[in-house]
Amino acid sequence: MGPELIILTAGAVQWVASLPMLRRLRAPAAGAGGRGMIREVSVIIPARDEAGNLPVLLESLRLQDRQPLEVLVVDDNSTDDTAAIAREAGARVISPGPLPDSWRGKPWACARGAEEATGKLLLFLDADCRFAPGGLEQILARYMGGAFAVCPYHAVEKPHEQLSAMFNLIMVASTVPTSLVGQCLLIDRETYQQAGGYAAVKTEILENVKFAERIRASGGRTSSIPGKGILNFRMYPGSIAELVNGWTKGFAAGAAATPGRVLFGISAWIGGLVTGIIAPCVTPWGWLLYAAFALQMIAMLRRVGSFSPLCGLVYPVVLIFYLVVFLRSLGPAGRKATWKGRELHAA
């Protein structure tokens, strides 16, 4: 068997093996779930210098057909108009107080929000999220108890945001259907308390990963879905530097915490992408393999964000960018970073 046939056969096997990953990226149909519990939901939004994002999120909440019990914005010592904007929109503003020693900012804000909330269900939302019409009810309709996360759909607006393509794809693929993301987490109070709440993960940069482990260890259930048509967000829209620093922060730790079976599947898929790049250098027939991976990439990206089809057609560009940033996260930049005026030191 010549090298041409070997590489084409290997690439074809890798392409077929990655089809389950494509299927995982589709949100399940809505059922009855907890649709009738919307008036028992306390929405908790940890916010530090989020004056630019909060109006969009709060307006999307206001436009939902049915309203939650309450909306709490935990103003984590912001230096902008975060608190004033939240109050003007009708949210209840919580001041968590000074950040205690050994706590990270987001877990502290979430913990304080949970203490002040009165609902049976706690919905933690990052400030850069925004609901699609009817999105809140769709989340409740898919909620089957325990801890339930929605991986937001990336609403891409600026050209440099296209570089998040691989990161978004891998983040969602490594989360659904049994792990959690931190951008949108719905959990009942009993499960929250049994797992120790955010106090149990107060030192973690990727608190969602460790919180999922704590919930399962305490007998709770964790599940997640992609958020297309339900919940959107913007990831690092400010600049390429913000994007690089944001994804560098803790990304290697997230990979290390991904279950081995899932990590193996994603690594095998990335290996297939590399095979698709090499194949045309070995044989002209290799362009068929490249095209197959490019089309598969386009289909996957459509399920996680409004990325341009060009990201799939020229996928080596976003793949190389991903690998460079990932390698950067393995070094000092991934262990120590500054985010919103605070130094983050990875364990």
Automatic annotation (TrEMBL):
GO terms for molecular function: glycosyltransferase activity. The chain crosses the membrane at residues 268-295, 307-327. Residues 42-147 form the Glycosyltransferase 2-like domain. It is an enzyme of class 2 (transferase). InterPro entries: Glyco_trans_2-like (IPR001173), Nucleotide-diphossugar_trans (IPR029044). Its EC number is 2.4.-.-. Keywords: Cell membrane, Glycosyltransferase, Membrane, Transferase, Transmembrane, Transmembrane helix. SUPFAM superfamilies: Nucleotide-diphospho-sugar transferases. It holds the Pfam family Glycos_transf_2. It is found in: Cell membrane. PANTHER family: GLYCOSYLTRANSFERASE (PTHR43646), GLYCOSYLTRANSFERASE 2-LIKE DOMAIN-CONTAINING PROTEIN (PTHR43646:SF2). This is Glycosyltransferase. It comes from Luteolibacter rhizosphaerae.
